């Protein structure tokens, strides 16, 4: 982070003011700020001053709970994608677009089971963007890794390159789409941290809002005062496949 | 627009052609109550595609969603309702987008991905 002291001070003052009237305590020392009072569509380009990120506490993530996946499906219109005519049902379950997958890990030595949501990890060095032949896969200045569907040719190199199996392909025409999540045949897509919310001034993702166990903390990794930075500072966490040195924006604790 | 509609009707020898066009209620779009679009009508007719094309890059790559031009804005304003109050997709035969694009043989790709009725909520 390369913000000057003065800039930081200004930012803190702003956050302090913004927090008045709408701050929720989610855990001791961890605050969720809602900036809904200032919510307005973004008019300036995103910058690297912000890096969106997430901390998932696998201990809080409950077995059998599907709330984040369902919320994501609804928010991003994934539930509107129908099975293509004549497709095999079991194949469809494996191939249907999913931005979050519920994963269960088992420690073979102890038998301990861990549940966690797996989605695009929003890498600082995204392999999907590296391999994309058209530049459709890209990393936005604020750290969100996305697909520009206007230039995606559907080659699916990115799906092969992603170590997190985070991307989905749309195999057939989609009858019903949401205004904020366009979707069509022949493009790859994945979690975009609910970018339409962030660009319209909101500061939460659908999965975070839906998690009744409060396993997901989302926010600006560059802001030391943000809930996610505070939580990362307080609790031990890991990046999955840290060996690849991708510096993902999504971290996990207790796995 | 009126000219084009007339030309189209003249060519095909029909009223505004298509089943859905007959269902859409004239004057039910938001735009019907407005003086002009985000630019004067003559400018919009000539340049609307330029506006949207540049705006799409700004939105996807730079996150700018408060700009004057947007495809969602077109749909929001220009979609008509049918007699039951349900929106008619703007790309259906005889509707706002299709009306001209069909006449000038523009193969429209926006709505393979984008919503054709105003935003939910």
UniProtKB/TrEMBL annotation, chain A:
Keywords: 4Fe-4S, Iron, Iron-sulfur, Metal-binding. PANTHER family: PROTEIN NRFC, PROTEIN NRFC HOMOLOG. The keyword Cytoplasm does not apply. One of its GO terms (molecular function) is 4 iron, 4 sulfur cluster binding. The keyword Iron-sulfur applies. Residues 52-83, 111-142, 143-172 form the 4Fe-4S ferredoxin-type domain. It comes from Thiolapillus brandeum. Pfam families: Fer4_11. This is Intracellular sulfur oxidation protein DsrO. Transmembrane segments: none annotated.
